[in-house]
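The aim of this short unit is practical: by the end, you should be able to scan a pair of folded records and say something sensible about each. We start with the first protein, listed as its amino acid sequence and then its structure tokens.
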Amino acid sequence: MEHSTIAIIIILLAMVSFALERIPLVATALLASLAMVLFGVMPVEEAYSGFGTNVVMMVAGMMIIGNALFETGVAAKFGDAILHTRFARSEKSFMIMLMVVESTVLLFINNSAIVALMIPIIAAVASRSNGKITLKNVLMPVAFVAVIRGGITMSGSTPQVIGQTALTQIGLPQMGYFKLAWVGIPRTVMCIIYFATIGYALEKKVFKFDDKIDQKLLTPSTAGGGGFSKAKMWISSLVMAGSVIGFVSGIFSLGFWSLLGVTVLIATKCVTPKQAFGSVDWNTIGILGAAQGFATGLNVSGGGKVIAETMINTFGGVKAASPLLITTLFIIITAVLTNILSDTALAAIMCPIAANVAVSLGVSPYAMVIGVILATGGDFTPIATAGLTQSLVGGYRFMDYVKVLVPLWVLLVITTVIFSPIAYPF
């Protein structure tokens, strides 16, 4: 059997396993990568080479830097400041303020960390409002926008760093820190407008359950920055700012700046080594590293090229196939699958295929790959994206997400289809 066929079979089996989730996602990713070695698709060193890449270093480093803002009290102080603003007196204005803040001031923090910060803030305001502000009406919009604004920068979520790898594997340079912003910003703005209008009205109609706030959610937000070292708060804030400046400068790699920031935090005792390693989501790192392994197998075996040629031939061959039509197809397929598959796992499967299709067509792959990256965010179920899953503490049922988010999901797909080819011409 051809290596390309074996690689495709392994990817298909991995996809089924990702969807069923009978075993942890990281186990599936590792097994898929190792299977590529066992069946002779790629050499053994390629199976684990992804764990030492710039991408993995950047993601792990930003997890530690982001968590340092919690450990040193910066997040608590920020949350306390929000609690005392005049926007916290009206439910809609409070919701809009939080969505704007997480999309601007907190733009460079990972989406899951943003949701973790916002939950206690919303719970605290709701508990003090005498029913004027509810957790259920504010949390879902804030969590959803946290996921979408993660698609503006390279450090906002994991799929973009997987797409980065897919592009570098076909010989393209690394994307700039704000490369995705041309489409990510319109998507974010549209989400904020939706929740301020149609979405908010739908919530009022759909959420008939009582607003119940778990008292455990109130603890983090009431710390108010008390008892924390001001010096450490300043250091951790400057490290975050310095990392972002380094990312944008283009000098050295993203991984370099992340690891430099982590080194400063540990050297100044803002975090201990134990806290640093404990703040890393090793499940995400495992999937990210292993996914690069089986993506390499798909490429070196020619499996990616076979899939690309099959798709192109379905649409009439290289001369007749429309890059715009195929890009649209990639975005729609990804947007549908992201409701049942982990965004990280889905990006690991779809990005290399999109890159190969673009190469076979002889066009720039950015529209297809970035379209896929962004389409992995914006699911209307709480299953596949960690940021949205965290919002379940709001007491929502599965169908609550579907009823409120499906119209927005459609708008996001349309926006991505329209803006991707404009922002990244073929």
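Turning to the second protein, read its sequence before its tokens, just as you did above.
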Amino acid sequence: MKNKQKVVTYISFILLMIVFTISIISFNDKTIQTSATTSISDKKIGWGIKRSNNHEQPDLGSFNKHILLKEKNIIPLMQGGMGVGVSFSGLAGAVASCNAIGIISTAQAGFAEPDFETNTLQSCLRAIDRQIKRAKEIAQGRGLVGVNVMTALRHYKEHVAQAVRSGADIIVCGAGLPLDLPGIVRDECEMSGVKKPLIAPIVSSQRAAKLILKHWSAKYNDSPDIVVVEGPLAGGHLGYTKDEAQNPATVDFYKIIKDVAECVKEYSEKFSKKILIAAGGGIYTKEDAQKVLESGADMIQVASRFVATYECDAATEYKNAYINATQKDIQIIKSPVGMPGRAIRNKFVQKIEKENVPVKKCLSCLSHCNPSQIPYCITNALINAVKGDVDNGLIFCGGRVGSIGRLQTVKDVIEELGINVSQ
């Protein structure tokens, strides 16, 4: 009897060891499979995924005013606004359809309207409404669709109000300090009875960020949802001196990101929400994106890489100018806006170096612009370029335009940056 009990006990032990061994093998197999299929974005970029022991991770559950980001599973990429007409509904909708943030530029948005020259403001407002709605149709409920409004525009407030009425998910403002943005948005939301969009100022320094944060907090008891930090390699109008723009290596962009992230903490705590940091300017590879994120940003902003995409709204000639450009073709110019800008050195840029281009008809697009004193009309120059007349137009570009070289899809660009679109 005792021998029989010993045999049963021995067999039970053997069976237990077999079950335990199978469990260990199964666990290891799953671990190996998970490790093999994890994308770079999961390791380095995705929100809520560990990037570095030195940086806090955004807690999506704590985004009191960012529930939309949580519900829609937004990937950490914002497409930068590019005007005139370069980032319209086609590009912004395609970016949003990848679960990212697509941005429409409102600058002279009505340039293709038949009454643009005789009824400029109303034509722009109609176009803003149509572009936002069309982008959302393209996105089919995915991602976010927003606008970029230059504070230097004469009708900046009207553009912001129209974007709110039209259902923009986010309003980004740069080319100046949007000190009154929360008030404009709040007033329009109350009048129109619409949901408040996310609001995001663009800055190039901790000083500018502090000024905006302090003013918004004191005057409006409000704060940004996202602070966009643009570096000296960004395209278009730059918040840097001409010398800094021409010598971007003299600017420690990654320190600026860290400094802005640090000053944002105080207001995140005050308003009990996570204020996100988006950073961009010269981001071309996944390594570029990773470095920005490791410097304290929560997401990247990319613009120029999206110009050379099938979905971009600019003319083929405009896209080809990007594809054919080399690093030697990039030049810092003086814009009538009063800021330095980065553009492709084409026949138009060479011409304005030698002589002024007379303004035939002023559309009063900028707040501070005297047609008799400016070297050229920036509206006319940008419209010529986006329509395909690149020899007589201004082509803004980022500092890495010489690396582009080919036409791609929006999805391919995003995934080359190390972000898994299907997540």
